UniProtKB/TrEMBL annotation:
Belongs to the short-chain dehydrogenases/reductases (SDR) family. The keyword Oxidoreductase applies. Gene3D superfamilies: NAD(P)-binding Rossmann-like Domain, Spore Coat Polysaccharide Biosynthesis Protein SpsA, Chain A. The keyword Isomerase does not apply. The lineage of its organism: Eukaryota, Metazoa, Spiralia, Lophotrochozoa, Annelida. This is Uncharacterized protein.
Length: 475
């Protein structure tokens, strides 16, 4: 059975101005229901019937071509047009390939994928002749009519409310029907409807300003709960930046999976995978291992890198290949194989590039080239992965006090003096008069990794270099 979901969204709202596109916990209100519908396994197409250019633009931004937009005709625009008239118009004017239709509203941001999928399964598998379905809230409470008469109980018998016969309230969250039933009854609820019971929280509907405030609190609570048990995979976890990144994620409550070519033991790493990611088969095996062992993956931090300090004429093919394989190809492969897990969690990828992608030095050609490739890879990958709710960004650290930096200070243009003099000299060339610390790079990586902080940041390269690259070399 094929199901087409239809969501009518009008631009104007009288009781809560602009509510359908108003920002709720970092996203416009319409985002939540559309995202939920797209994630439902039984829904084949999502159609939005709207008269709002603002919403049409936003749907393209958030969902690209995954949502079909039907521009509402002028004669059906306005606050007094019945939803049934909108449904009959959009379905008869378009040849959607659907056996059934599901209609919901953007004002129900807390409805879940499971509730919708379960409702569709129950309806499509019913053998009792139901021609439609609608969702309800269940009430066990004493009700009275306008004259004070008891409606569902005997006032002289105060039995517990949970023992009263239930009363059902239509909550306007889910309607399921066929085209034939809609046209016959001129209504989304047919002659023999099935009632789908829903929880009070999922039934939350935004009609008034107070409802918007309550919904925001509930969405925040749900988002906070979904953050529990988050998993991050960090490559190059044994290095200076890798260690600091693991510490930061662990402090924030994440489960940390670390990878490195050398065996390490860290209190910040919950699970360690020792492997050489310069080999393609090891990249695939590592992600397969994570998929087997972990229930989810929320972030991939591509941090592993090597740095070979040689002039162009001294760089061998083996040097070039190994640098590119570790610093660029492994990022591509790990991101490719981790795609499905990250899509399920609407996760993120943070690639660690370098300021050498922008401005570079002598005797570091293979490293600089690889980091330039990482920055381009980040932009290209982000275009495709954003469609699957995966954000991809990069951090470009400047001089940071790590083992790699200290080894690199032996290059000819900075050689001479002990290591502390070299670090001090290098630091004096920065606007802040010092080099960076791994913890400062880790903070930037975490900012890009956690969607609560950077949900609108996609495909960007964040330079963290103490101002080193903003000063003209001629000054």
């Amino acid at each position: 059975m094929k199901v087409c979901a239809i969501v009518p969204i009008k631009h104007h709202s009288s009781r809560v101005p602009g509510k359908n596109y108003r920002v709720l916990e970092g996203k416009p209100l319409y985002y939540y229901v559309i995202r939920t519908l797209l994630d439902c396994k039984h829904i084949n197409q999502v159609v939005v019937d709207t008269d709002s250019p603002l919403i049409i633009e936003g749907l393209e931004q958030y969902f690209q071509n995954n949502v079909t937009v039907y521009p509402r005709p002028k004669e059906l625009q306005g606050d007094d047009v019945p939803t049934n008239a909108l449904l009959m118009n959009v379905i008869t004017k378009n040849d959607y390939d659907a056996d059934y239709y599901l209609q919901t509203h953007v004002t129900n941001p807390l409805i879940t994928v499971k509730t919708i999928d379960d409702a569709l399964e129950r309806f499509m598998n019913n053998d009792e002749g139901y021609d439609s379905a609608f969702s309800v809230m269940t009430h066990h409470t004493r009700l009275y009519n306008k004259d004070g008469g008891a409606m569902n109980h005997n006032p002289k018998e105060l039995i517990p409310t949970q023992d009263l016969d239930p009363i059902y309230e239509e909550n306007s969250c889910i309607y399921i029907f066929s085209k034939a039933s809609l046209l016959e009854h001129k209504h989304r609820i047919g002659a023999k409807p099935m009632m789908i019971k829903m929880s009070d929280i999922e039934s939350t509907d935004i009609d008034w300003e107070d409802d918007f405030i309550k919904a925001g609190l509930l969405v925040k609570m749900r988002n906070d709960q979904s953050m529990e048990g988050r998993v991050v995979l960090i490559t190059g976890v044994g290095g200076g930046i890798g260690t600091a990144v693991a510490m930061k994620f662990k402090q924030e409550g994440w489960y940390v999976v670390g990878m490195d070519i050398k065996h390490i033991e860290q209190p910040y790493v919950d699970r360690f995978i020792q492997t050489d990611i310069s080999k393609p088969e090891n990249c695939q095996a590592a992600i397969a291992s994570v998929m087997t062992t972990e229930t989810r993956l929320d972030c991939l931090v591509n941090n592993a890198a090597i740095q070979i300090c040689k002039k162009v004429v001294d760089t061998e093919c083996e040097d070039w290949d190994r640098t590119m394989n570790v610093n660029a190809r492994a990022m591509f492969l790990l991101s490719k194989y981790a795609h499905d897990m990250l899509q399920k969690s609407s996760g993120s990828i943070v690639n660690v590039s370098s300021v050498h992608a922008h401005q570079t030095s002598e005797s570091i050609v293979s490293y600089a080239t690889s980091k330039g490739a990482v920055s381009v890879l980040t932009r290209a990958m982000s275009l495709e992965y954003a469609r699957d709710s995966i954000r991809v960004n990069a951090v470009l650290p400047g001089a940071t006090d790590t083992g790699m930096l200290r080894s690199g200070l032996s290059r000819g243009h900075v050689a001479g003096g002990d290591i502390y003099q070299l670090i001090s000299s290098l630091g004096s060339k920065h606007v802040v008069n010092r080099i960076g610390q791994p913890s400062e790079i880790a903070e930037a990586i975490y900012f890009l990794a956690d969607g609560r902080h950077s949900s609108f940041v996609i495909g960007q390269s964040l330079v963290v270099d103490g101002g080193a690259t903003i000063r003209l070399s001629t000054e």
